[in-house]
Amino acid sequence: MPGTVVDEMWAQFGVLSELVEEDAKENADLTTKNFLEANFSKTMLICAASYFERRLSIYVEEFTNHASSSNTLVVSLVKNESIHRQYHTWFKWDESNANALFAMFGNDFKRSMIGKINGNDDLRRSVSDFLKIGHLRNSLAHGDFGNFDLGKTSTEVYELYQSAIRFVDFVPEALRAY
Q1: Separation between Cα atoms, residue 18 and residue 24, nearest integer Å
Q2: For residue 57, how far is the Cα from the chain centroid?
Q3: Which of 20, 39, 88, 94 shows its CA 20 to 30 Å from the CA of 71?
């Protein structure tokens, strides 16, 4: 599977981090290294959250297109009223489940997804990590970005992303299978 833009950013950060690490050793100055880490963890968080928003929006649009047999009226309605600028209403970011998203597709779908997720520890963790990313993204975006203390290293953010992407990839499979 080819890497995502988040994976590419992580790889580039590794290269940059090594250069800064070498410079810090030579000059006995960790200020730049600490500055890079503090700001890159925030950048990684925003990158992961926006990537997830785009992917899930595309998945819902593709599902709508398929389910409506490409009815442009239905697809346009869903895009304009449920997708465009609505993504952050799909979730209750301070919770550890995606029941609000699942309920958008009806109670039967919601019950089915709750059962599938509760029966899979990895998927349950993935959902929780996905929502942590969204919650942290909101805190960062609506706070003072420059002074915001994320409380997570870039490695911890990337690990959340690696877990959360399993949930993001699960959504279109779940919609198709239902």
Answers
A1: 10
A2: 12
A3: 88
Residues 6+ apart with CB under 8 A from 13: 40, 44, 154
**Closest to 159 measured CA to CA, from 136, 119, 131, 129:** 129
The pTM (predicted TM-score) of the whole model is 0.91
What would the pLDDT profile of 36-74 be if each residue is shown by its tens digit? 988 999 999 999 999 999 999 999 999 999 999 999 999
Q: What is the DSSP letter of 170?
A: H
Specify whether the CB–CB gap between 66 and 47 falls below 8 A.
Answer: no
CA distance 89 to 103: 12
Count CB-CB contacts under 10 A for residue 154.
23
Longest dimension (CA), the chain: 63
Q: What percent of the chain has pLDDT over 90?
A: 83
